[in-house]
Amino acid sequence: MAVKTRAAIAFAPGQPLVVREVDLADPGPGQVMVRLLASGLCHSDLHAIDGIIAHDFPVILGHEGIGDVVRVGAGVTEFAAGDRVMPYLMPDCGQCPNCLSGRTNLCVEYGRRFNSPTSPFSLDGVAVRQFLALGTFAEMTVVAADSLVKINPAASPEQACSIGCGVATGLGSALLRARVTPGSSVAVFGMGGVGLSTVQGAAMAGAARIIAIDTNPAREALARRCGATDFLVPAAVDNMIATLIALSGSFGLDFAFDCVGRPELAELALEAVHPAWGVAMCVGVMPSDARIPARPSALLSGRTLTGSFMGGAKRGDLPGFVDMCVSGELAMDAIVSHVLALDEINRGFAMMRSGEAVRSVISYAE
């Protein structure tokens, strides 16, 4: 039997979200109903609103959440009512060729579910899409069991919910994909939630020099708190590549991460890393038609230009990240800058656009 729940709906690209009461279907086989406690606002949600990520409308966005299991569908044995859980946009079916390979977190089910017309949400009898098969901008949602993981209930939902995307992407990019090495030199472009998490991951890995780069000078204090040893504002630097190479203490950086999602920054990162072994990683989401103008000769000597989707993290990595939040090893209070009510969600996206917010979170606490 369907239940009623409040949700923020995007009815068309470029329009403000509207909070409405929607119908939520019971969990089907292999599915779980979750009452959400908090949800982070991510740039991927904004990209969907702006049309940078192609998606059908109307849609309930949101994919960073923490909540409690309400009930489970047939065949679900891993979860029970009352479990504290985190939805994760990357499924872990354990059966597709990708999952069985052990070489990637990119489950085949991700592509099948990304913009699926099948949704547990409806409004006045008309289906409302569920972003990334999660739709956490709703007080309750129904998700596949293979997109959920149990987490430490001691974690603050408002502090830890962004681990489900932005933080996992940043930490994973440094720790799981690039595998930053002790004593290495690192540059991170963009001090949003993903970039600050990448800085923290590099610091956890023991990098000796971590150079944070952002157009907003006010982000310096946060970057240094997360482990940055240096901070650069592009407008104050005559030659960014030369400056980064000089700061590396060698012929170039060991690692550089574009956490903004701009082709020119990816190219800059490639040119700034060591010509023999440097790794430049694309982390931020770029428009689907973007191209990186890399010089082939920049790669011939041994540089690597690569990418990171969700930091290479699988759902099994998330509980460990949440435990870092609980222990204080992960400084989530440097990332979550604003806690809002669901009715304030458009304000949250306005602060994201202006740069006022590092990461805004919707709290569903009554």
Counting helices, strands and paired strands, the structural category is alpha/beta
Named CATH topology of the largest domain:
Quinone Oxidoreductase, Chain A, domain 1
Q: Percent of residues in beta strands?
A: 15-25%
Largest sheet: 7 strands, mixed
Helix content: 25-40%
- Rg is 20 Å
Proper CATH architecture of the largest domain: Alpha-Beta Complex
The shape is globular
Mean pLDDT, to the nearest integer, reads 96
Number of domains: 2
List the uncertain runs.
Answer: none
For the terminal residues, how far apart are their CA atoms?
24 Å
Q: What's the count of strands?
A: 19
**Count of helices?**
12
CATH class of the largest domain: Alpha Beta
The CATH H-level homologous superfamily of the largest domain: Medium-chain alcohol dehydrogenases, catalytic domain
